[in-house]
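During the no-cost extension, the postdoctoral fellow (Dr. R.K.) reprocessed legacy sequence entries with the updated structure-token encoder. One reprocessed record is reproduced below for audit purposes.
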Amino acid sequence: MKFSEGIQRSLPFGYLFLVVMGILKESVFYYQIGINILKYSTIMDILISPIATLTAHPIILFALIGVVVFSFAFPSFLSKQANKKKRWALQMASLKEHENMSKEAIENHFTNMFVRFLAMMLLSFFVGIGWGEGLGLTRKIRENKLKYDNKLNYGDENSEEVHLIGSNSMYYIYLAKGSKTIKISPVGSIKSIELTNNKKLK
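Re-encoded structure tokens follow.
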């Protein structure tokens, strides 16, 4: 079995792992502001959480692509060098008994190495994003540096300027201007949202 074929066999588990990473990222982020986001999420929110994370900003998507490419390229490169019996590659791959291993066994070893390597990289990537964004948000709240660039219009004709922290299919999570109390409002209670500081349209 070739190394690339081993990767293809691992792909069905990839999205499930991304879902877990998306949940972990959201949980780490909201935990820092005292919210258990899973209590306010539906199954659909959980399933699309990795997609929402990746489409939140182009830099995040490009960074993840870079992580995946590097995680594939490095073990693949080592695999080719190990098949050529290069000592340094065998040492880096921890192939101590390579003389008694078949080519297929070596390929399987590098497939497992890729999966472990990618899993660690993705774990660090998603947890790092969640932790960093959470720290940034809590710091801005403490220092009163939030931008209130959204206006929520309620069904009773009232409205308020807010900093929208996040949303899902059921709730909006935000901070109203002049308050440090985080509010969670059902989607049905919000009539509309206005982007009051959309520089791209100005």
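Helices lie at 3-10, 12-31, 43-54, 58-83, 87-92, 103-142. The two ends are 57 Å apart (CA to CA). The remaining legacy entries will be reprocessed before the final report is submitted.
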